[in-house]
Amino acid sequence: MAASTRSVQCALRRAVVPSLVVILGATGTGKSKLAIEIGKRLHGEIISADSMQVYQGLDIITNKVTPEELAQCRHHMIGFVDPVVSSYTVVDFRNKALTLIDDMHCRNTLPIIVGGTNYYIESLLWKVLVDTGGNEESGRGGDGAARRKLELEKLGGAELHKRLAEVDPDMAAMLHPNDKRKIARSLQIHEETGVPHSLWLEEQRGQEGGDGLGGPLRYPDPCIFWLRADMEALDRRLDARVDEMLSAGLIEELRDFHVRYNQQNAQDNGQAYQQGIFQSIGFKEFHDYLTAPESSTQQDKDALREKGIEAVKIATKRYARKQNKWVRNRFLKRPGDNVPAVYSLDVTDVSTWEETVLNPALQILEHLSKGETPPIPPIRVQGAEQRNSRSHHTCDVCDKVIIGDLEWTAHLKSKRHYSFVRKRKRDLDGDQAHGARSPPAAPAQTLSKDTGAAVAPGCS
Questions:
Q1: Quick one: pLDDT at residue 77?
Q2: CA-wise closest residue to 185 among 219, 153, 141
Q3: Nearest CA among 227, 220, 182 for reference residue 201
Q4: Which residues span the domain enclosing 196?
Q5: I want to staple 62 with a disulfide (CB 3.0 to 4.6 A). Which of 52, 102, 167, 311 is the partner?
Q6: Does residue 48 share a domain with residue 102?
Q7: Phi-psi region at 404: left, alpha or beta (left = phi > 0; alpha = psi -120 to 50)
Q8: CA torsion, ordered 443, 444, 449, 452, to nearest 10 deg
Q9: Chain CA centroid to CA 290, Å
C-alpha cells in the first residue's frame, strides 16, 4: 500500500513530459550514443532494456557501454546479475525497471529506455505480463520456476503444443508449434494459476485502454525513436564492429568466460545455449572452437576460429533484421489506441549524425515537452490500418504452419511458396504423362477458413 501511495504522489508531482523516451533500433545503429546525448541535455537517466547486458561479464560481446560512457550519464540495469543464474526473467526486469522509472519521476528526471530486447521493452510500455501471484512472477521460488521451464523446453515442440492444446486450445492456436519458449510459458501459467493463459490475456485486453493487441499503455505520453539505416550500410557497419570486437579481445573474453562458467557444464551434459547469458551471440557460434580438443592442429583451430567469426557476423545481421521486423510489426503495422507514435531517425550516414539524428530528436522532445505537435511527423507504413489476427494457417504445399493473417498473406506471395506450387504442378503433370490416375480437378483458389482470403491450391 505504501508503495502504491508513493507512486500516486510521484505521478501528481511529476513534471517530466514525455513520461519516458524509448530508443529502438537494430544493433549497431547507435542507440546508446543518442541516449547519452539526450540524457546529458535533458536531465535524464538511462535504463538498459537488453536481456544479455543485465549479466556480469562478457562486456565486449554484449556491447556494454564503456566506463567513459557510463561517466557521461547515469545508467541502470547493466551487469548486476550473476552469469550462472538462469532464473532471471522478464518479470524480474519489469519489476525493477518500473521502480526505477517511478523514482525518476519523483525526482523530475527523464527515464530513457534503450535496448533491443523486444519483450523487455513491451513489459514496460504495456501491461502485458501475467502475474501469477507466486513462483517466478513474484520473485519467490524463481529457481523452481526456471527448472520447471527447462523441463518443459526439453520436450519436443509437437509434444508441448499438444499439451497446451489440451488445456488451452485458444492459446495453442495462436502459437507456432516450434515456439517452445512461449508454449512452455503458457503451460507454466496454467499450472501455477489453474487459469488458461488465453483467459488472462482476454482480461488484459478488456481493461480500460486495452484493445486486441493487449493491455493498456502504462504511460500516456511516451516518445518512441526508431533509429533506422540502409541495410547494406548497416551490414558493413556490423561486420566492422565484429572486427573491432575481435581486436578488443573478443576471443579471449569468450575463452576466459567459457573456462570459468561453461566448460564443466559443456562436458557434463552439453550446452544448448538457450538459458541466461549463454544465449549471447558468440557462444553458440564459437562453441566448436572453444571446445576443440587439445590434440587439434593449429590449422584446425584456425579454421574453427574463422568459422566462428563468420557465424557471428551472420547471426548479428540476422538479429538486426529481427529487431527491425519487431518494430514494424508491433508499432507500425498493428496500430491501435494504445500504440504510441514512432519517430524515425536516419542513421545511415554517421558523418551527418548531429543533423539527421540528434538535432531532430531534441527538436521533437522540445515540442512534446511544451504540449505542441512536433514539426517532424511520426512514421506510418502502408497498410497500417490492417489488424493482424493471430489465426492459425497450414500450407499443405510447403508443409508449413503460419501464425497470423499478415504473415499468411506474405507467405502466399513468397518465392518459396510459388516454387513449391510449381514443383507440385510439374509432379502432377509428370504423373499424368505417365498414365497415372488423374486427381480430381482442384479449383484455382480456395478460401482460408480463418480469413476468407484467396488461397493457392493445397493451402488451408
A1: 96
A2: 153
A3: 182
A4: 137-204
A5: 52
A6: yes
A7: left
A8: -130
A9: 27
C-alpha cell at 445: 483458389
Q: Output the CA–CA distances (angstroms, integers) from residue 329 to 26, 58, 379, 397, in the order listed.
A: 14, 31, 13, 26
Q: Are residues 383 and 397 in the same domain?
A: no
Whether the CB-CB separation of 321 and 26 falls below 8 Å is answered with: yes
Query: Which pLDDT score, from 0 to 100, does residue 120 have?
Result: 92
pLDDT at site 330: 80
Residue 29 sits in the same domain as residue 102: yes
Q: What is the pLDDT of residue 421?
A: 81
Grid coordinates standing for 363?
A: 527538436
Please name the helix (run of DSSP H) or strand (run of DSSP E) that holds residue 400, with its range, or none.
Answer: strand 400-403
Same domain, 148 and 234: no
Q: Is residue 272 part of a domain?
A: yes
- The answer for 227, left when phi > 0, alpha when psi is -120 to 50, beta otherwise, is beta
Q: Is position 132 within any domain?
A: no
- φ, ψ for residue 297, nearest 5 deg: -75, 160
Does residue 438 sit in helix, strand or coil? coil
Q: What is the pLDDT of residues 405-414, one digit of tens each?
A: 767 777 788 8
Residue 227 has pLDDT above 90, yes or no: yes
Look up cell 505521478; give the residue: 11
CB 206 within 8 A of CB 215: no
Instruction: Check whether 73 has a pLDDT greater than 50.
Output: yes
CA-based nearest residue to 99, from 87, 88, 111, 89: 111
pLDDT for the residue 202: 67
pTM: 0.71
Number of domains in the chain: 4
Domain end among 387, 417, 433:
387
